[in-house]
UniProtKB/TrEMBL annotation:
Keywords: Calcium, Disulfide bond, Glycosidase, Hydrolase, Metal-binding. Pfam families: Glyco_hydro_47 (PF01532). One of its GO terms (cellular component) is membrane. Signal peptide: none annotated. One of its GO terms (biological process) is carbohydrate metabolic process. GO terms for molecular function: calcium ion binding; mannosyl-oligosaccharide 1,2-alpha-mannosidase activity. This is alpha-1,2-Mannosidase. Ca(2+) binds at T261. InterPro entries: 6hp_glycosidase-like_sf, Glyco_hydro_47, Glycosyl_Hydrolase_47, Seven-hairpin_glycosidases. Pathway: Protein modification; protein glycosylation. Belongs to the glycosyl hydrolase 47 family. It comes from Xenopus tropicalis (Western clawed frog). Its cofactor is Ca(2+).
């Protein structure tokens, strides 16, 4: 993995962005499609978290993360006519003004990575994370059920709403609540708990069934129908982040724990000097 990461670091990247596809035969980029949501999300997340779990000693990972975030902000982050900040997708040389529910995790990632940002950018990235959180909340608030769609547009008069029928579903995804939790931990702004409680109430009202919880096929319908699936990430992530959102900060403090992309906590590898010079050990 480290060898692959070094190769990726050395490769030329279109506009400084990491495309989603790499040809394993040629070692070159495949389709020039870049997304912070599906297919690309965990890559950026793990650059930051590799640095954090190493007790901030993995400098290569941090440099790659900072470079990627600068390119993302320059080429993918835009503000809608209604003043909502969103992260689009780069496809075939142009920006698609659509944001996926999966991309909503980025608000929390930006907040998590704010400390340690180059220059005086810590406050800037925390604010950008807050703007993404606000946009994703709007995607929930503008539906009938107060649950967010799979993807939402900022084009042709559409503002944080799904326009295609196959993007109007909600499958118990955690990314928006994940961002609420990170924003709460770093700001303690009560609106994040309020927004999280709104989502929890909507999930309980519209998704609870006799055998558990189900996804919804259309969040804009006042007569919702179920997809009859309870996703594993609902238990691993959605409910866990809701629980943490309303818990004290000393439960899994972020100085000592890093959550992987499925919300499993991993201990930070704090390094201390052992009795042998130059031989750090984990504690």
């Amino acid at each position: 993995v480290m060898h692959i990461r070094k190769l990726l670091q050395k490769m030329d990247r279109p506009n400084g962005l990491f495309p989603n596809y790499l040809n394993p035969r040629t070692g070159r980029w495949g389709q020039h499609h870049t997304s912070v949501g599906g297919l690309g999300d965990s890559f950026y997340e793990y650059l930051l978290k590799a640095w954090l779990v190493s007790d901030r000693s993995d400098i290569e990972a941090r440099h790659m993360y900072d470079s990627a975030i600068e390119a993302i902000e320059r080429h993918l982050v835009r503000k809608s006519s209604g003043g909502l900040t969103f992260i689009g997708e780069w496809k075939n040389g142009h920006l698609e003004r659509k944001m996926g529910h999966l991309t909503c995790f980025a608000g929390g990632m930006l907040a998590l990575g704010a400390d340690g940002s180059p220059g005086e950018k810590a406050g800037h990235y925390l604010q950008l994370g807050a703007e993404i959180a606000h946009t994703c909340h709007e995607s929930y608030d503008r539906t009938v059920l107060k649950l967010g769609p799979e993807a939402f547009k900022f084009d042709g008069g559409a503002e944080a709403v799904a326009v295609r029928q196959n993007e109007k579903y909600y499958i118990l995804r955690p990314e928006v609540i994940e961002t609420y939790w990170y924003m709460w931990r770093f700001t303690h702004d009560p609106k994040y708990r309020r927004w999280g409680w709104e989502a929890a109430q909507a999930i309980d009202k519209y998704c609870r069934v006799s055998g558990g919880f189900s996804g919804i096929k259309d969040v804009y319908s006042s007569s919702p129908t179920y997809d009859d699936v309870q996703q594993s990430f609902f238990l691993a992530e959605t409910l866990k982040y809701l629980y943490l959102l309303f818990s004290s900060d000393d439960l899994l403090p972020l100085d000592n724990w890093v959550f992987n992309t499925e919300a499993h906590p991993l201990p930070v590898i704090h390094l201390v000097n052992s009795t042998l010079p130059g031989n750090p050990v984990a504690r």
